[in-house]
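During the second half of the funding period, the structural biology subgroup turned its attention to how the target accommodates small molecules. The most pressing case was nicotinamide-adenine-dinucleotide, which had performed well in the primary screen but for which no bound structure existed. We therefore specified the complex as follows and requested a full 3D prediction, including the ligand pose.
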Amino acid sequence: MKQLIATQKEFFNTHTTKAVSFRKKQLNTLETVLKENESLLNEAIYGDFKKSGFETYVSELALLYHDIKQAKRNLKNWSGRKRVSTNLLNFPATSYIIPEPLGVCLVIGAWNYPYQLSLAPVVAALAAGNTVVLKPSELPANTSNIIAQLINENFDPRVFKVIEGGVPETTELLKQDFDKIFFTGSTKVGKIVYKAAAETLTPVTLEMGGKSPAFVTEDCNMKMTAKRLVWAKFLNAGQTCIAPDYVMVHERVKDEFLELLKAEIEKERFAFENDNCVQIINDDNFDRLEKMIPQDKIYYGGTLSKESRYIQPTVLQNISFDDAPMQEEIFGPILPVIAYTNVEDAISKVRTFPKPLSCYVFTSDKKTKQKILKEISFGGGAVNDAVMHISNPNLPFGGVGQSGIGSYHGKAGFDCFTHYKSILDKPTWLELPIKYYPHTKNKLKWIKRMMRWQ
Ligand code: NAD
């Protein structure tokens, strides 16, 4: 590892990676490698947790292709120096900002969208002119292998190299001297990464999780709400960082909402049956989720098969904030529904949790919408939809507080791997004497006057 990072640093210091043409070439290579190997990628992820080619394309590869295309289209503009105005005190001068890559970057991926979460930060890092060491999650072993194989066969290791492994390898990587660490995963491990980075004052972006609420008010379009929530919650068997973790529904419409949820799940039955369904990633997570289901509170679902790591989409009712599924991020196909009588109380309850990664508001009432958006702090979200905000690259994606530090995707991704170097550029033909000794009253008067014209 030490040797690899030293080699990447040496290469970075040749300034080769800073050329726009070089960055484009890396992005083109990545795009070609992915496109030419889609069937291998599909096979690997299906082998890990039975994720279908359709879902892999829609929720992983399509996002990567879009990020690559957008980065290539905007590279010249994003990486060019930006002129800004100069204040009177500095006259005569020009002022500008030079975007510069940070250097050698470490990207640590999570398992639940293994291609997208490992490679989207890499797209941003390469576009910004950095070199990258990627450590994908070890849990989906086949996808980790195929990423390593394809990248290490097709990229110069001085620019982009994949190192596979779990906790020991990541711990070792975190001891190395990187210029940036980008981590996706749990809040618990995020803290470990943050502590390690503090030792060397390495800048970090932490993309973590949390309990993302969905509010369903009396006046929403109930049928559409149920449809969109069922899709968002049970996509990838609920193993989505921005999945609605639980629903706060107005008491007066709770029964209607539960009925509609059930109808929507049954409509999608084919996708949710054991044979077609994305699996729970491993036995540990299966056991964790199983313990979370209070048998007396199952409204719908509750069928489990440990052998095939299958949990039927399960809706829980009469849930309180003290129940098991409300004690941690669920990250599985279990949806607790909690009734509220007034929105103020519901907001107060939600705010007892750390700031979530997402929040969703299903309502047609403008005031309620504004109130929830204003009074709850969260990473990002949607109104009358869920999860889909991630698919708009113009919306920076990231958490706040315990759900994350920093954001990425689109231009935000480029910024996340870039230092903006500010320059005041002065000619030598004129120098105003007012800042120099002797410090007279008259000079101070002039400085104060000039400060008014900032
Ligand atoms: P995780 O924190 O267990 O693992 C993430 C990465 O950290 C893996 O590469 C793993 O090898 C490494 N790791 C694990 N333990 C470590 C340790 N002790 N020291 C050093 N490295 C270690 O997370 P996960 O199970 O892969 O993913 C699930 C979590 O990630 C959920 O909380 C979810 O909300 C969150 N997540 C967030 C986003 C986001 O974009 N914000 C996306 C996906 C998942």
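Two results from this model are relevant to the next phase. The longest helix spans residues 53-79. Residues 379 and 399 are 4 Å apart (CA to CA).
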